[in-house]
Amino acid sequence: MDIFPPLTGFYAAIATDTRIGASHISIYMALLQQWNITGGNNPIKIERALIMKAAKINARQTYNKCINQLQEYGYIIYEPCSNQFETSVIHLKNIEMKT
Fold first, then answer.
1. Bond into 80 cis (ω within 30)
2. What is the distance between the alpha carbons of residues 65 and 56, in angstroms, rounded to a whole number?
3. Would the CA dihedral through 45, 47, 51, 57 be positive or negative?
4. CA torsion angle for 83, 27, 68, 37 (degrees, to 10)?
5. 76 forms bridges with which residues in the sheet?
6. Beta strand 76-79 with 88-92: parallel, antiparallel or unpaired?
7. Residue 29 and residue 54: Cα distance in Å, rounded?
């Protein structure tokens, strides 16, 4: 029985994707947790500092690189916000929107 399909789906997708490393997985897990605690709504609003903290990533450069690569590889859609006082938006692909 699969009690959390988004997690299972992500791990199935990355099983053969050699481009994905530990930092990508850590950030995706932090995004998935944010999605989960905000009620399963997709897209989710994120704050970079909170995602970095949850993912245990200290370097902003690593965070930016991995977020952009997750988008490039087709796992997320990233809508960055240029205003530091507003939140960016992430669409987790292959996760059903809550109705």
1. no
2. 15
3. positive
4. -50
5. 92
6. antiparallel
7. 9
Helix (H) or strand (E) holding 8: helix 5-14
Mean pLDDT value across residues 72-90: 91
Q: How many Å apart are CA 70 and CA 74, to the nearest integer?
A: 6
In this prediction, residue 96 has a pLDDT band, given cuts at 50, 70 and 90, of low
- Residue 76: closest CA among 46, 53, 39: 46
Average pLDDT rounded to a whole number, residues 67-94: 92
Which amino acid appears at position 38 of this protein? T
| pLDDT surpasses 80 at 1 | no
Q: Could you give the 3-state DSSP secondary structure of residue 84?
A: coil
Asked whether residue 93 carries a pLDDT value surpassing 70, the answer given is yes
- What DSSP letter does each residue of 26-93 carry, written as one string? HHHHHHHHHHHHTTS-SSEEE-HHHHHHHHT---HHHHHHHHHHHHHTTSEEEE--SSTTS-EEEEET
Only one residue has tokens 């490039």, namely 72
The tokens for 76 are: 């997320």
